[in-house]
Amino acid sequence: MRVHKKGFQVIAITFLIWLALNIIVGMTGELYFRCFTFLATTIVLIFVIRFFRYPRRNIELKPNSVLSPADGQIVAIEETIESEYFGDRRLQVSVFMSVYNVHVNWVPVPGIVKYFKHHNGRFMAAYLPKSSTDNERATTVIEMADGREILVRQIAGAVAKRIITYPIVDSTVNQRNELGFIRFGSRVDLFLPIGTKVNIELCQSVTGSQTVIADL
Question: What does the DSSP assignment read for 91-159?
Fold first, then answer.
């Protein structure tokens, strides 16, 4: 299993805490307490390592499709006003990532990055509708070869405190590229043209870079 580069520091710190606690408790000589501490801290260490896992995936380029930008569950498919960039009605598709999902984000469509902005905000639960506009978030707009623009928004959750986005404005991207990474529970919104026919349903589980959200 690969570990994402954004996890190295967190895993190293967690390992040092695990090691220190077990050494200190080991000096007490109380067997049951030592066993309990070892099991509890090892579970936490394994959870942290697993959170930063980076799966190897065969990504098939589909230039006329929107691939899921993240692993998780579809929590919204609805028409809404996108006020930050488009200023009009768009079809919003939202993927919620629990702490058990892979948290790598992928580029959903090929094209040129036309816009990026990071917004500071709150850290309410990412599955709530207001999180799309009130939470800490990062907005990226990609212009496809035919001129259509797709907006993808990374949103922090109740415990997510760090959003990383890799593509920069004017860079060319494709669906094999990483969009970024969000630490510890979060959500990714897609804003598509009205009338786009989606291939997924509410509550459906999707896989980043693999599941076709819609055909354009």
Answer: EEEEEEE-TTS--EEE-SS-EEEEEEEEE--B---TTSTTHHHHB-EEEEEEE-TTS-EEEEEEEE-SS
Q: Do residues 168 and 118 touch, judged by C-beta distance below 8 A?
A: no
Average pLDDT over residues 197-209: 96
Residue spans of the domains in the chain: they are 5-51, 65-215
For 25-83, the pLDDT digits (tens) are 888 768 888 889 999 999 999 988 988 888 889 999 999 999 999 999 999 999 999 99
- Whether 122 and 134 have beta carbons less than 8 Å apart is answered as yes
Containing 187, the helix (H) or strand (E) segment is strand 186-192
Element (H, E) at 73: strand 72-82
CATH of domain 65-215: 2.70.70.10
In tens, the pLDDT along 140-158 reads 999 999 999 999 999 987 6
H helices, E strands: number in the chain: 3, 13
User: Which residues are part of the catalytic machinery?
Assistant: 186
